[in-house]
């Protein structure tokens, strides 16, 4: 395994931690700033929307720059944002810190995906992207439970101080382990990168990303309230329960990458269908502590198994200029995050209870599955038309042995 993949995963760990750890600390932060659950949800929604902005604008701004220095600069921004969160003295200041930290997120994973794919042979690209995203899954398996435990016992600010330190360590890792040779990759102008969006399949992939991830996060954003108020777990058990979700993410990410290296579209259809079933089961059985344990692990597994395939699909259909499209798809993941969190908050505010976000997630995921089936069908028709056109363009191939291409 290239050492650069480990460095990228380390960076992903830090960024994943700052994105997800707030979910386990949402009750404590809401109490500190004296705001409602829905208002506290904006620490998640605001972060996600800022990721979308950063994924597009920041990636476009740096697309012609050497990738390694860009990754280092993005981690500096990440460190600054978490430092602001650690010292925030008001709800508004906390929002600002979350926004600053989020601006690096989309560009880091978008550019990092291109770098990761460039470090391995063609038949291992989705797997390489999965390894980079292992940082996100490790953040959930190890970082989020520990960060939640730390925040509950030493105050939630201690968690953000710890994330700031991890950000510094990740920066050093990128500086030392990612080869500068990758900077020699052919650069495209912003106009050239924008040409990738002429592909309808790129847009369909982005829509599936928004809906697929929105479904999972519609269910997961308010999970701390679901676990305590519906399933009946003690609040101090939440960090350890999140280990199950994180373990599911870890396994699902690796398995999803391997499946996507065999067939991206088949893998995504199967995974999204599985996620729908898991979310419906969770919504129906959330009052059962035992069933909830299984649901948490399966929701994480199926939810994150989509990530390598969705990222690779966008890069495949934007192969000539993948950087901005890759960054846009990272933004799409977080736009889905924001959509799911917002809709979940709406249903809670309507008094529909803490299982209502899970039903929202299931509904959104059904939409993702339908779009994915349509996209896969259109891709098959397009490939068949391309092969037929190529055959018609060379009708005499086979008559002259000299004209037959080498295998």
UniProtKB/TrEMBL annotation:
Spans through the membrane: 42-63, 70-89, 95-120, 127-148, 160-181, 202-225, 237-255, 267-284, 290-310, 331-352, 358-379
Taxonomic superkingdom: Bacteria
SUPFAM superfamilies: MFS general substrate transporter (SSF103473)
One MF term in the entry's GO annotations: transmembrane transporter activity
Matches recorded under Gene3D superfamilies: MFS general substrate transporter like domains (1.20.1250.20)
Entry keywords, A to Z: Cell membrane, Membrane, Transmembrane, Transmembrane helix
InterPro entries: MFS (IPR011701), MFS_dom (IPR020846), MFS_Efflux_Transporters (IPR050189), MFS_trans_sf (IPR036259)
Protein name: MFS transporter
Subcellular location: Cell membrane
Stretches assigned to the Major facilitator superfamily (MFS) profile domain: 4-380
Pfam families on file: MFS_1
Keyword Cell membrane found: yes
Its membrane topology: Multi-pass membrane protein
Organism: Arthrobacter terricola
Record has Cytoplasm as a keyword: no
GO cellular component: plasma membrane
Main location: membrane
């Amino acid at each position: 395994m290239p050492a650069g993949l480990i460095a990228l995963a380390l960076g992903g760990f830090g960024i994943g931690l700052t994105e997800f750890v707030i979910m386990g600390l949402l009750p404590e932060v809401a109490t500190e700033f004296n705001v409602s659950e829905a208002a506290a949800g904006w620490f998640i929604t605001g972060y996600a929307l800022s990721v979308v902005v950063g994924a597009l604008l920041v990636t476009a701004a740096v697309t012609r720059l050497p990738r390694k220095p860009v990754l280092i600069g993005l981690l500096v921004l990440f460190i600054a944002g978490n430092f602001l969160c650690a010292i925030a003295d008001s709800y508004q200041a906390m929002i600002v810190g979350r926004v600053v930290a989020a601006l690096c997120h989309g560009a880091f994973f978008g550019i990092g995906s291109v770098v990761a794919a460039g470090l391995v042979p063609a038949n291992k690209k989705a797997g390489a992207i999965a390894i980079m995203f292992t940082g996100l899954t490790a953040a959930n398996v190890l970082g989020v439970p520990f960060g939640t435990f730390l925040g509950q016992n030493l105050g939630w600010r201690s968690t953000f101080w710890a994330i700031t330190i991890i950000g510094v360590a990740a920066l050093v890792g990128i500086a030392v382990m990612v080869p500068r040779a990758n900077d020699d990759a052919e650069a495209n102008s912003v106009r050239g990168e924008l040409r990738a969006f002429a592909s309808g399949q790129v847009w369909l992939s982005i829509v599936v990303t928004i809906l697929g991830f929105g479904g999972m996060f519609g269910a997961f954003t308010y999970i701390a309230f679901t676990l305590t108020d519906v399933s009946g777990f003690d609040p101090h058990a939440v960090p350890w329960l999140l280990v199950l979700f994180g373990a599911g993410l870890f396994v699902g990410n690796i398995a999803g990458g391997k499946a996507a290296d065999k067939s991206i579209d088949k893998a995504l259809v199967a995974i999204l269908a599985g996620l729908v079933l898991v979310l419906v089961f969770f919504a129906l059985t959330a009052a059962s502590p035992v069933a909830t344990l299984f649901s948490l692990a399966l929701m994480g597994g199926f939810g994150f198994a989509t990530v390598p395939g969705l990222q690779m699909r966008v890069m495949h259909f934007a192969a000539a200029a993948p950087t901005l499209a890759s960054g846009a798809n990272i933004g799409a993941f977080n736009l889905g995050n924001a959509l799911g969190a917002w809709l979940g908050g709406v249903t809670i505010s309507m008094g529909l209870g803490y299982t209502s976000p899970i039903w929202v997630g299931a509904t959104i995921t059904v939409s993702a599955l339908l779009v994915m089936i349509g996209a896969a069908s259109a891709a098959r028709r397009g490939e068949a038309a391309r092969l037929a056109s190529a055959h018609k363009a060379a009708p005499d191939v086979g008559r002259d042995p000299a004209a037959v291409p080498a295998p």
